[in-house]
Amino acid sequence: MTTFYHSTRSNADSVTSKQAILTGIAPDGGLYVTDQLGARTLDLADVVDSSFQETARSVLGTLLPDYSSDELSRCVAGAYGPQWDDAAITPLTPLGSDWLLELYHGPTCAFKDVALQMLPQLMSVAREGNGHNVMIVTATSGDTGKAALDGFSDVPGTGVCVFFPYGKVSDIQRLQMVTQVGSNVAVCAIRGTFDDAQTEVKRIFADRELGGRLAEDNVVLSSANSINIGRLAPQVTYYFNSYAQLVRAGAVKAGEKVDFCVPTGNFGDVLAGYYAKRLGLPVRRLIVASNSNDVLTDFISTGTYDRNRAFVKTISPSMDILVSSNLERMLYYASDGDVELVSTLMAGLREGGAYTLPESVYAAIRETFDCGRATDDETRETIRSTWETEHKLIDPHTAVAKHVLDGIEHDGTTRVCLSTASPYKFSADVLGALGIDTSGMNGFACMDSLEHITDTVAPAQLSSLREGEVLHDDVCDQEKMGAFVESSCARVFL
Above 80 in pLDDT, residue 269? Predict the structure, then answer.
């Protein structure tokens, strides 16, 4: 049976998952969802005995069934192979009385690799017989950009254009992007925040005149952000795989419920956990961990989403987000598919910066979701204490989640904390948290010092950046992003 997708804001037009992946975002600005989520579930007994790759095939086959078994096998082989520095792909390790899910063993040392090594594979298959060139346009708060650039670099028939907020990513994150090689890549910093970049990317997708001009040159736009269902679906795999690792370790018996604590700003990573629950994973709670840009924690605590607040630059920059795009999918499912309500809420967010949920929808969200927050000082203290007590080095985003998890009374339920990036991507802030004065030190000096004082080794894919040549130095205002995309399309495809 083909699983059809439609917009969160309308039931009018249905597309296959291949079409949804190629398009990225629905024409009305909504996100693609399926009403068949949960109609088919995964067999836990099979999952427990499966490798990461085997589970990925099962998850994707359930969510994207218009891909054939052979196509998915090809995609999985290309995405989860020797480019990972751990054969488990996403290993689970003990962390005190809890567990740490390490999602940073891919080529860019961030959790985005799990999806962005897969998305180019899925998109290439979807393009077969299509003939269109695809330009991937993505806004990033730090990690998505490099992961997208790496995944799509020199992929035939595609280009990738990444925007990041100038001065609001770590030195290492910036270098990962501006040194990216590839004949089909474009990188540009924007004067503004991630939210500014993401808002403009959505406007670019909705620009019919731009789309028409590109279509004349056989170019269509798509996204590598988690608004693309092809980004979200692969992330479901590591929730199932982590559960299998827990069972094999004797931490839970098959069928026992587990809590997951997820550092998130755009709501994509934690939404994948909700999808896993709908597909049969025994999830009790999904705990949303926010930094000082705590719009999601306030939302889950009150039922009101309000982005009308000061933007805070934190030491966990990938979470410095005030407009959480993927939350729209959750609103759709929590409201039992009420597209009119979702449209109204999104209009309220767009026009007034806020909306309040009906009580029934809010209650549905609270059945699964909990929340908490961490300031920068609390994040630093968690990095320090985790190193001193557990001899485990964690990055600031992971530390946000661990702080929140530590603040929740442990009632005996097995708990998993998602670790979303290598600490070496944020060497200066991690080093500072350990009590070292980093004044006058660049990112690589901090990296070297962190290696020395902890007797750990920086990932080669990060330490090698010091030899990289800066290839992309463009900076533009938000309103110039569309022109940059158009010129990049001309350079790559014409």
Answer: yes
